[in-house]
């Protein structure tokens, strides 16, 4: 049965900004879906507020709406586009929720549009606990037993039925406050009585504990003919209790017999059938009791999920692509397997390798947050590795994390493992390291099992790694066989060199002298049964390699590794664009990356894909393999963020050609003295500054340049360790605060800059070809300098800069580009203070804003940069049409305004006592993603950006104002306007008095710290939902505590918060806009046509 | 650690480590792609005479137990594994795989590049091979000579080696539907369980039984099992099957039984290049248009290009009921004019997915109907 003929146009809903739990895997799946639909001749309409995505490239849809994903906006798009169907299963929970909201408000019926991929009943059956429980029971499985109690008698009666241990969860308390494990009646009475008291409804849920059970996931697909296949099984290394996104996971499931596995498969197929997912994919999570095999179904998602992306990369089975085809009516047997070309998709992939995924966390960004891993996901990214054995895949995955201490270490001095055995009972990101260390220090596998409940087989594999390390350490001499054996267990050259007390280079030389190099195997979906047509490779130390020769010229592009705060999808965007641009001119592209969430690791993106860690060793080996099979032009390091850039020197030292700006020049941009001389030569100013490696030096610098200062370690991304220091006291503590992260040493000194107060920060993205400069965009930050550019919202084109100021920025950019001999991309941050232009920093690489510039202005900077790096001139690219004839410095009047807004993850992070961490912005980046709002004027674009970021501005209600003294004068105007718009104004006493003096009516509220027992403080009011908008700018240390309470409560209550007056002022016009009614919508393709008209005018 | 060598008939030699007992073994080298179910594979009599290589690298993690064994012994001629498990981790495990292999006297080899060998077999076809793990001094010429002296799978009859020596009876469960005569050509425990649990009383016969002896027990239907060897070399069973089919009582065959039905109806069988051995194989049911994910273990197949043909031996019209979607191989036969059907794959699926259990129900229905 071929595809449905009644579907001519489909609206695809994207997943919006990158947040924890919903990252770029949905760009990968959405991009695949859009491609499939377009290939099928269907008109694709896309809505996604996230400009950093590949899917929002105008090429991937016929109408691309970068608009907030809200039911109102989507309805406006439906009204305009009249699609036949909506595909909501590829944009994560965001898209599914949006689809349900559209259904509930009647939009689907009103416009006669059908949901495809999953229907309303299936979505409900998957989410409604009661309905789903029945589905599970019908399928012959179980759910965790639970019941609600309102008093101690009920508690004890329920406990009698369930048996210990059990979980007690008080209802309606914030952040899981008061919940706990009861191992016996004494525990139960203690926890439940406190829980009943803490619960506003005097209610606790008592649930059977399945903590410590083995956890599995199955990824399934089902078509309209009721054909179901299990694409992949995944086993969690961490037992139940840790969110699967925070677990180390392994594919395929390792510790199940066929009988147990087929039982899960049978249950899964019955569930997908019962729930009614009839054209698409779903993911089902299971818990299995290791004692007796009892199976509990934890949950199911009737859509493509994070695990589907992982499963796709792990197996080579493109779930999202197939899901899109099923949604438009194909059946599995009608769809070819892309990898073999000759067999159909109606099969179950067989692996002949092991895949390990490890999460990457960012707790260092949220020092107050509780690092315990729970059922709430906290990781910000992940790395995946493929190996022929588990030990190899695990060690490759750990080093792919690129995090200090992520690889196993084998200390010479043996310690008592007791403390580690205690520590590992609480799951944290360090647990795997604690397990390995404890075993290394002599703890038994049984002791580790008792402490963690990690399956004994996994523990034994770590024992095996330790034994191999011990054996290698004690070898009399290394020969080729012993080295090969160690490499087969995934040890890096660096780890082995440390064991032998030699340098990494010496070990590598020795290995190469043996002729010992990895071979590259292929991910082929079928364990070798059929030839693979796609070169998707991973390394292993075995006999035969599968890399086939090619006679094309090729370029290797280094990806950006696991997502982290400061380095995410934006860099993948540039890498992907480079592959597109090079492929267009007949150059073969080779991608190296280890992030399973990305488009760059889709086997369709580059001509050849190597799923490998981005370490010097692993990258050099890929380069060697590729050099054996064709002409290598060079390696691109400026697209993959700091990950790729940090390999530049090592690659150059190994004689590998680096395309674009040379490693020496990259260093000159970072090295303070050299960069200063470039600025001096150009007559440009930087804020007064100095360098320090310790407190004494830093104090000396400050004596010279004066407080406040901005301190930042060099060679870090995302403002790691960056702070504004206002006084000696804070400076004294600075080195202690960053000590454990070892960010500063003589090779990487601390940069100390005079901090410019009340300056406007400006970001520029440009390309330089050695002769000519092309400015992509000049972006003006809405927050003043001092807020990390990644957390700051910005506007393009700038709204307050004059033409002559922009000219000065452009001229300075050109001088710096020349001074640094840039070939390719350049990002510069400037500050304009009292009409004086300061250069803050220059980075000769792709920046986070490259995709934003592309979407806002239609200038595809990364593609052009890739061309420039392989020798094209900007003038040629302009003639070809790859770049517009006029660059982004002067945009014609009438150019729409685009606003980028950051999305912050504070809500994910609770402190140990269950409150949220401070949501204050600062010079260290903490946002996970971004949204864009585009419209004819700034207030509308800003309002759209706010709505897209999830904190839509209210049209009426109550605003609470509490601003620092220095902010009071600037806040008058915006607050007055809010009052005029009819908002009720609340303020703290000081602010209230000031407002009173200026004739603005407001009511004083009681600070949290001053509230008496029976008084309602502002924090209580926010918590109770009585406040709709909060304006709170931080002041001195005394008020900080109150400020924290206010901000934490606002975060918890999900209300918009402004922590700078600049933000508030920017938003005032937007408050007016949202009162006028709903947003109008316009696709990028229409903006592009208007742009051509504007230019020709 | 002891060295071991895997020697292929084309002269390729792979060095690895001794696994199982020290010794020498020769047989046909085949690869199996299932990621679970190694114990079921090892105890499947269809693998008699074959050196089985697991494409999944980690084998033995869940140990072994009595329940999961498909017969009373390990049948493979040799075993090739990339990375044997050091421990067994499963609540049902009774013995480690290592122990089990040693008790069954199996010669194996580990730590070889199994993927490379798989690709080799895929491109050159299934071939004879030997594992040599006893005597490190044996020269490669000596080893190769032994491999080349081994019999080829084509033309071999192995039923006698794997079949029961005398007939036995298994009572039906869950009510009584009828009595079935089962020809043991290498039958698996699960198959018998599936028949018995649906109310069939089973009489299992050895492979060399005559039609008269079977008919003397007056069964309501006949079942031919899976098993090793070349169907072309099983002329006796084929002519016996023709006699049984002539009774017009229901017949169901699995795997080797499917090949014998094909031959009994007058069609040819042929040897596949490297066979199907996995538990992920898509098969289309031509009647329903639905896809079943199925377990396969066959090196031979019935030759039928068109989906419908007339039996040259007068059994009427024959339909190809199932085909493999990977390569269009015949995976099932259904007679239109007599109550006989068979599948090339394994509906009992141990190991493997349970998509095709319905075939046992179909057999039950046929028996009920014929009574």
Characterize the structure shown:
The complex is a heterodimer of chains A (1097) and B (371). Helix content of chain A is 37%, strand content 19%. Chain A contains 38 helices and 39 strands. In chain A, helix 1 (25-39) packs across helix 11 (319-327) and helix 7 crosses helix 8 (185-198). Chain B has 371 residues and is an alpha/beta fold. In chain B, 23% of the residues lie in helices and 33% in strands. In chain B, strands 10, 11, 12, 13, 14, 15, 16, 17, 18, 19 and 20 form an eleven-stranded mixed sheet that branches. In chain B, strands 1-2-8-6-4-3-9 form a seven-stranded mixed barrel. A two-stranded parallel ribbon of chain B has the order 5-7. Chain B is globular. Chain B starts with a strand and ends with a helix. The chains are: A alpha/beta (1097), B alpha/beta (371). At the A-B interface, helix 9 and helix 16 of A face helix 3 and strand 15 of B.
Topology of this structure?
The complex is a heterodimer of chains A (1097) and B (371).
Chain A: E1 9-13, H1 25-39, E2 43-47, E3 63-65, H2 71-81, E4 85-87, H3 92-104, H4 107-110, E5 114-115, H5 120-127, H6 129-138, E6 146-149, H7 152-162, E7 166-170, E8 180-182, H8 185-198, E9 204-208, E10 214-222, E11 228-236, E12 249-251, H9 258-275, E13 280-288, E14 295-301, H10 306-315, H11 319-327, E15 354-360, E16 381-387, H12 390-400, H13 418-423, H14 431-440, H15 445-452, H16 456-474, H17 480-488, H18 493-500, H19 504-513, E17 519-522, E18 536-540, E19 553-558, H20 569-584, E20 588-593, E21 608-611, H21 616-627, E22 631-636, H22 641-645, H23 648-653, E23 658-659, H24 663-670, H25 672-682, E24 689-692, H26 695-705, E25 709-713, E26 723-725, H27 728-738, E27 750-754, E28 760-768, E29 773-784, E30 794-796, H28 803-819, E31 824-833, E32 836-843, H29 850-857, H30 861-869, H31 874-880, E33 897-903, E34 929-935, H32 938-948, E35 958-962, H33 968-980, E36 984-987, H34 989-997, E37 1003-1004, H35 1018-1023, E38 1029-1032, H36 1037-1053, E39 1057-1058, H37 1061-1075, H38 1084-1096
Parallel strand pairs in A: 1-2, 1-4, 2-3, 4-5, 18-21, 19-20, 19-22, 20-21, 22-23, 35-36, 35-38, 36-37, 38-39
Antiparallel strand pairs in A: 6-9, 7-8, 7-9, 10-11, 10-13, 11-12, 12-15, 13-14, 15-16, 17-18, 24-27, 25-26, 25-27, 28-29, 28-31, 29-30, 30-33, 31-32, 33-34
Chain B: E1 3-8, E2 13-20, E3 24-32, H1 38-42, E4 50-54, E5 58-59, E6 78-81, E7 83-84, H2 97-103, E8 107-110, H3 114-124, E9 127-132, H4 140-149, H5 159-162, E10 168-170, E11 178-183, H6 189-197, E12 200-205, H7 211-216, E13 221-224, H8 235-246, E14 251-254, H9 256-265, E15 268-285, E16 291-303, E17 308-310, E18 317-324, E19 330-335, E20 340-343, H10 358-370
Parallel strand pairs in B: 3-4, 4-6, 5-7, 6-8, 11-12, 11-13, 13-14, 14-20
Antiparallel strand pairs in B: 1-2, 1-9, 2-8, 3-9, 10-12, 15-16, 15-18, 17-18, 18-19, 19-20
Helix pairs in contact in B: 8-9
């Amino acid at each position: 049965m071929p595809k449905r003929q009644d579907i001519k146009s489909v609206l695809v809903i994207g997943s919006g900004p990158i947040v924890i739990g919903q990252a770029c895997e949905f760009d990968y799946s959405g991009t695949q879906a859009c491609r499939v639909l377009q290939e099928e001749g269907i008109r694709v309409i896309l809505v996604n507020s996230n400009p950093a995505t590949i899917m929002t490239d105008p090429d991937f849809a016929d109408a691309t709406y970068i608009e907030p994903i809200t039911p109102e906006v989507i309805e406006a798009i439906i009204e305009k586009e009249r699609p036949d169907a909506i595909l909501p299963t590829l944009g994560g929970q965001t898209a599914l929720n949006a689809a349900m909201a559209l259904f509930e408000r009647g939009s689907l019926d009103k416009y006669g549009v059908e949901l495809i991929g999953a229907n309303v009943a299936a979505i409900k059956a998957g989410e409604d606990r009661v309905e789903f429980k029945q589905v599970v029971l019908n399928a012959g499985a179980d759910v965790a037993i639970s019941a609600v109690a309102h008093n101690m008698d009920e508690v004890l009666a329920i406990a009698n039925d369930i048996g210990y241990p059990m979980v007690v969860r008080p209802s309606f308390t914030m952040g899981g406050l008061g919940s706990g494990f009861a191992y016996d009646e004494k525990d139960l009475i203690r926890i439940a009585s406190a829980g009943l008291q803490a619960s506003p409804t005097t209610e606790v849920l008592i649930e059977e504990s399945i903590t410590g059970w083995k956890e599995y996931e199955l990824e399934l697909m089902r078509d309209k003919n009721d054909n179901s296949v299990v694409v992949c099984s995944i086993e969690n290394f961490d037992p139940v209790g840790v969110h699967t996104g925070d677990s180390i996971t392994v594919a395929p499931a390792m510790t199940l017999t066929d009988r147990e596995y087929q039982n899960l498969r049978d249950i899964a197929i019955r569930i997908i059938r019962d729930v009614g997912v009839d054209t698409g994919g779903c993911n089902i999570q299971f818990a299995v009791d290791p004692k007796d095999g009892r199976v509990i179904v934890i949950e199911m998602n009737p859509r493509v999920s994070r695990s589907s992306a992982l499963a796709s990369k792990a197996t080579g089975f493109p779930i999202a692509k197939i899901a899109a085809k099923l949604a438009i009516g194909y059946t599995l047997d009608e769809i070819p397997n892309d990898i073999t070309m000759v067999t159909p998709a109606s099969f179950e992939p067989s692996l002949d390798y092991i895949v390990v995924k490890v999460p990457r966390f960012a707790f260092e960004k949220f020092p107050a947050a509780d690092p315990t891993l729970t059922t709430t996901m906290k990781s910000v990214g992940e790395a995946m590795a493929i190996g022929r054995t588990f030990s190899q895949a695990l060690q490759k995955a750990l080093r792919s994390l690129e995090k200090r201490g992520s690889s196993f270490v084998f200390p010479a001095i043996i310690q008592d493992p007791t403390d580690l055995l205690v520590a590992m009972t609480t799951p944290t990101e360090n647990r795997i390291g604690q397990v390995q260390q404890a075993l290394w220090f002599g703890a038994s596998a049984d002791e580790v099992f008792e402490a963690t409940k990690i399956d004994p087989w996994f523990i034994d594999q770590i024992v095996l790694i330790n034994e191999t390390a011990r054996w290698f350490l004690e070898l009399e001499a290394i020969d080729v066989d012993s080295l090969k054996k160690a490499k087969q267990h995934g040890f890096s050259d660096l780890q082995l060199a440390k064991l032998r007390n030699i340098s990494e280079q010496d070990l590598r030389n020795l290995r190469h002298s043996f002729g010992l190099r990895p071979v590259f195997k292929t991910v082929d979906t079928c364990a070798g049964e059929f030839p693979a047509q796609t070169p998707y490779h991973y390394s292993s130390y075995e006999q035969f390699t599968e890399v086939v020769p090619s006679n094309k010229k090729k370029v290797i592009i280094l990806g950006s590794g696991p997502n982290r705060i400061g380095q995410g999808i934006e860099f993948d965007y540039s890498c992907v664009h480079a592959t597109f641009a090079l492929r267009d001119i007949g150059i073969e592209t080779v991608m190296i990356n280890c992030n399973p969430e990305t488009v760059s690791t889709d086997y369709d993106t580059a001509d050849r894909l190597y799923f490998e860690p981005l370490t010097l060793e692993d990258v050099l080996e890929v380069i060697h393999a590729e050099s054996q099979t064709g002409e290598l032009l060079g390696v691109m390091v400026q697209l993959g963020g700091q990950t790729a850039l940090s390999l530049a020197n090592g690659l150059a030292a190994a004689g590998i050609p680096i395309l674009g700006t040379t490693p020496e020049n990259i260093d000159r941009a970072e090295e303070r003295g050299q960069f200063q001389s470039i600025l001096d030569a150009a007559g440009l100013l930087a804020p007064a500054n100095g360098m320090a490696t310790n407190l004494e030096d830093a104090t000396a610098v400050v004596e010279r340049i004066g407080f406040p200062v901005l301190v930042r370690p060099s060679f870090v991304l995302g403002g790691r360790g960056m702070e504004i220091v206002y006084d000696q006291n804070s400076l004294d503590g600075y080195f202690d605060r960053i000590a454990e992260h070892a960010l500063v040493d003589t090779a990487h000194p601390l940069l100390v800059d005079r901090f410019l107060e009340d300056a406007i920060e400006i970001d520029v993205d440009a390309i330089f070809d050695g002769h000519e400069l092309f400015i992509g965009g000049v972006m003006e930050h809405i927050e003043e300098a001092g807020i990390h550019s990644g957390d700051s919202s910005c506007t393009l084109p700038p709204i307050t800069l004059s033409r002559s100021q922009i000219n000065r920025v452009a001229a300075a950019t050109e001088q710096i580009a020349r001074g640094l001999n840039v070939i390719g991309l350049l990002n510069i941050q400037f500050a304009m203070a009292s009409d004086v232009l300061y250069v803050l920093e220059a980075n000769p690489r792709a920046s986070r804003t490259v995709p934003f510039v592309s979407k806002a202005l239609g200038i595809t900077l990364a593609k052009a940069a890739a061309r420039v790096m392989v020798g094209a001139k900007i003038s040629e690219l302009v003639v070809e049409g790859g770049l517009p004839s006029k660059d982004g410095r002067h945009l014609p009047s009438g150019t729409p305004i685009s606003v980028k807004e950051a999305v912050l993850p504070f809500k994910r992070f609770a402190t140990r006592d269950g409150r949220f961490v401070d949501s204050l912005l600062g010079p260290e980046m903490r946002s996970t993603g971004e949204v864009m709002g585009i419209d004819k004027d700034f207030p509308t674009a800003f309002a759209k950006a706010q709505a897209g970021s999830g904190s839509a501005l209210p049209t009426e209600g109550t605003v609470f104002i509490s601003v620092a003294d220095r902010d009071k004068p600037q806040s008058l105007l915006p607050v007055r306007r809010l009052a005029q718009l009819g908002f009720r104004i609340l303020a703290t006493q000081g602010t209230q008095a000031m407002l009173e003096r200026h004739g603005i009516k407001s009511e004083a509220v009681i600070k949290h710290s001053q509230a008496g027992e029976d008084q309602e403080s502002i924090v209580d009011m926010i918590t109770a939902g009585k406040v709709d908008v909060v304006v709170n700018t931080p002041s001195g240390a005394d008020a900080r505590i109150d400020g924290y309470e206010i901000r934490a409560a606002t975060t918890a209550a999900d209300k918009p918060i402004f922590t700078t007056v600049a933000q508030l002022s920017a938003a005032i016009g937007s408050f007016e806009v949202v009162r006028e009614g709903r947003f109008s919508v316009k696709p990028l393709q229409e903006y592009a046509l208007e742009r051509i008209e504007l230019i020709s005018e | 650690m002891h060295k071991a060598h895997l020697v292929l008939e084309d002269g390729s030699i792979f060095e690895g480590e001794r696994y199982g007992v020290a010794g020498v073994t020769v047989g046909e080298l085949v690869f199996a792609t299932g990621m679970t179910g190694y114990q079921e594979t090892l105890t499947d009599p269809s693998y008699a005479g074959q050196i089985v290589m697991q494409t999944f690298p980690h084998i033995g993690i869940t140990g072994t137990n009595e329940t999961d064994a498909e017969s009373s012994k390990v049948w493979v001629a040799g075993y090739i594994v990339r990375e044997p498990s050091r421990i067994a981790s499963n609540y049902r495990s009774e013995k480690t795989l290592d122990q089990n292999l040693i008790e069954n006297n199996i010669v194996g080899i580990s730590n070889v590049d199994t993927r490379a060998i798989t690709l080799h077999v895929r491109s050159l076809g299934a071939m004879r091979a030997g594992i040599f793990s006893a005597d490190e001094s044996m020269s490669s010429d000596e080893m190769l000579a032994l491999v080349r002296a081994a019999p080829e799978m084509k033309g071999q009859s192995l039923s006698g080696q794997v079949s029961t020596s005398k007939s036995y009876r298994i009572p039906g469960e869950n009510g009584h539907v009828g009595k079935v005569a089962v020809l043991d050509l290498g039958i698996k425990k699960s198959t018998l369980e599936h028949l018995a649990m649906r109310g069939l009383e089973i009489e299992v016969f050895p492979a060399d039984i005559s039609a008269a002896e079977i008919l003397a027990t007056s069964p309501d239907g006949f079942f031919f099992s899976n098993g090793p060897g070349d169907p072309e070399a099983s002329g006796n069973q084929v002519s016996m099957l023709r006699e049984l089919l002539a009774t017009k009582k229901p017949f169901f065959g699995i795997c080797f039984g499917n090949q014998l039905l094909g031959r009994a109806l007058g069609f040819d069988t042929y040897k596949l290049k490297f066979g199907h051995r996995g538990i992920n194989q898509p098969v289309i049911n031509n009647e329903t248009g639905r896809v079943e994910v199925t377990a396969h273990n066959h090196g031979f197949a019935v030759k039928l290009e068109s989906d419908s043909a007339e039996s040259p031996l007068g059994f009427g019209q024959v339909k190809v009921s199932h085909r493999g979607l990977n390569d269009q191989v015949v995976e099932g036969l259904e007679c239109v004019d007599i109550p006989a059907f068979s599948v090339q794959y394994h509906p009992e699926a141990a190991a493997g997915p349970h998509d095709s259990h319905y075939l046992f129900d179909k057999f039950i229905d046929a028996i009920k109907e014929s009574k």
